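user: can you give me the structure for this one chain? tokens are fine.
assistant: on it. calling the predictor now.
[tool input]
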Amino acid sequence: MKKDGTAGKGRALLRHLAVVLVFVLAAALVFTPIWVLGGRYAVSAVHDVQAKLPRADSDLQLTEQYDPQPNTFGIVDGATVTGGMHFGRLECSQIGLDCPVYYGANRVCLRAGAAASTAYGLPGYGKSTVVTGYNTTVFRNLAQLKKGDLIDFSTNWGHFSYRVTDHQVLTSDESVDVSVVDKEKLILFCTYPQSPFGNLADQRLYVFCEKASGPAVEVSADD
């Protein structure tokens, strides 16, 4: 009798655990999509509101001076690029990428499109070009890029194509060596994994690309 009682209690406990497990799984199935979709909608709404807010005199002013040139080879003159300037466009049909590129990796530029860091080079100048974007907007499909995919980068001084060569996922405490000795690179990056809230993404996804075609900019001694 004692054994039967112990066995009965064990079966009852298992039934309770099974009920709890089913409840947890059902809650996850119901609330996870709501969390993800709701979070994305919230971030998109915030970005829309921020884009419509009046800018203070102290804010960086964006300038729309994009005038793409068809040069794909040879030596060309550079163009003046200033902070907040729309000077280029990134396109990649494989992941549906098609966005403007502004000069300056700051919130004002990132709200309008992708942003090229002022700390590095620009296409055609013989150095690495580093471009970042929000992983919920322009770079939401960045992780889908594959080795060999081509990315077009149109600028005010020429048209450049880059081929994807590698990916890296690093923590926010790690850094990437973007120094280039013998050739140009395009480095795209965003926070990772994709999250509607940036503070929950503690890693960075880097996509490395080598220059496949495009002109070289004639750099004067004063540059």
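assistant: here you go. The first strand starts at residue 63 and ends at 64. The helical segments are 2-52, 107-112.
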